[in-house]
Amino acid sequence: MGFCVSGTRATIMGIGTAVPTNVLQQSSFSDYYFETTNSNHMVDLKAKFANICEKTMIEKRHLYMSDEFIRSSPSITAYNSPSLNLRQGLADAAIPQLGAEAARHAIADWGRQASNITHLVFCTTVSGCMPGADFELIKLLDLPLSTRRFMLYQAGCHGAGISMRLAKDLAENNHGSRVLVVCSEVITMAFRGPSKSHMGNLVGQAIFDDAAGAIIIGAEPTGNERPLFEMVSASQDIIPGTEEMVVSKLYEDGIVYTLHRDVALHISRNIEGLVKKALERASLLTKDWNEELFWVVHPGGREILDKVESSLVLRKEKMDVSRKVMAQHGNTLSSCVIVVMDEMRKRSRKRGLPTAGEGLEWGLLFSFGPGLTVETTLLRALHNQEPNA
Ligand SMILES: CC(=O)CC(=O)SCCNC(=O)CCNC(=O)[C@H](O)C(C)(C)COP(=O)(O)OP(=O)(O)OC[C@H]1O[C@@H](n2cnc3c(N)ncnc32)[C@H](O)[C@@H]1OP(=O)(O)O
Q1: 20 to 30 A from 18, CA-CA: which of 24, 160, 269, 355?
Q2: Which residues form the Chalcone/stilbene synthase C-terminal domain (predicted)?
Q3: What pLDDT, on the 0 to 100 scale, is given for residue 388?
Q4: Sign of the dihedral through C-alpha 347, 352, 355, 358
Q5: Is 9 in the pocket of ligand 1 (CB under 6 A)?
């Protein structure tokens, strides 16, 4: 069983992910963090941080920075110390490396040669240099020098949504094009010690982590391509009056962000309207959002998933995949929803379901970022990639 591809619409033809090998357990992270940042004297703050870590429902996280690097970099473990050179040096290497690993998996999943890629959209929330991570990726993957590149720095957690929307436009308007989207994130720029007067930093230290995600997007699949999802529509909205909710600035001591207590509240108050808008735009008359839709929601934090779920009156299992990715990876910024999509199609295949979208045809992908900005992608799951499905 499966659904047919409709004409020239962009489809997702391959997905890949990558994480660094250094794994931190969340249950012991407060001890590790306060020890390595020489902050054990801040007893009350440490207890508060341990409580936040527990409430995240994250189990483990992956970190590009090694234990040795963290312990030998006092300018990084301080709350604020000039450290941009050191941070940028690490990001210069990490962002393309991790992105290339995810891209190799996506290309293998797609099944065609890297030389068939025509466009590259590279996105990261951290780092900034020219020639950039997109340029490095061309070298690492030996992509054609004529690959048309788009580099998005300081993209935010909604970066995958932006990149996919751009890739959709490219794929649908350039006959035969195959767009490689890479979202690569490491928290190297923003890892810092605790401060009593900056709780948003502490929340971020408890949830943000490293991962890369890559996808291949193209229209009009050829015989040997087996698309997973069709991208029916892709849109962006700002939630009015929320620009102070998530703010990230680059200083000489790295990226400093503020996370307001009410991020989840604002997202959940607006999500129903955005769902309706996306469905109406496609003239989709779904009545039961539990029975008829699959959900790929950015795991920004436990509270965001909880509140989105309750405001849309979704059954708990509808957010299972986002929760699993959050538990196993934390919030990996822009790459997170790609990891969720990958997990969903793997789980669907394992369970023998007919589509990569938990057996359903229609689904919504949401990524959230500063602004607050919401990227909404309406997906149509085509078929499972299991050869005999
Ligand atoms: C949306 C985007 O732009 C993209 C992104 O992904 S950015 C990241 C967005 N994610 C977030 O902002 C995190 C969302 N928050 C959460 O998931 C949850 O609040 C959490 C897991 C961090 C904590 O769980 P919780 O159920 O709220 O725990 P709770 O016991 O109420 O709070 C723990 C403490 O942290 C404080 N706290 C939580 N979030 C805070 C924040 N953003 N700023 C300051 N303090 C905060 C609480 O006030 C509380 O303090 P006290 O101990 O003094 O009471």
Answers
A1: 355
A2: 230-382
A3: 39
A4: negative
A5: no
Q: Which of 318, 309, 301, 306 is nearest to 368 (CA)?
A: 301
- The parts of the chain modelled with pLDDT lower than 70 are 1-7, 384-389
In total, the chain counts a number of residues equal to 389
ipTM value = 0.96
Give the other-Cβ count within 10 Å of 14's Cβ. 25
Residue 275 tokens read as 């769902």
Euclidean distance between the first and the last CA atom of the chain, given in angstroms as a whole number:
7
d(CA 355, CA 121) in angstroms, rounded, equals 27
- Burial letters for 350-360: b for 16+ Cβ neighbours within 10 Å, e otherwise? eeebbbbbbeb
Phi/psi for 289 (5° steps) reads -75, -10
Q: Which atom of ligand 1 is nearest to the CA of 267?
A: 1
CA quadruple 214, 220, 223, 225: dihedral, nearest 10: 10
Whether ligand 1 lies within 6 angstroms of the CB of 260 is answered as: yes
Substitution candidate for ligand 1 out of 303, 305, 339 with most atoms within 8 A of CB: 303
| Ligand 1 centre distance from Cα of residue 262 (Å) | 8
Catalytically active residues, by annotation: 157
Reduced to 3 states (helix: H, G, I; strand: E, B; else coil), residue 24 is strand
246 lines ligand 1 (CB under 6 A): yes
**Number of Cβ within a 10 Å radius of residue 313:** 10
- Dihedral of CA atoms 100, 113, 362, 207 in degrees, nearest 10, equals -10
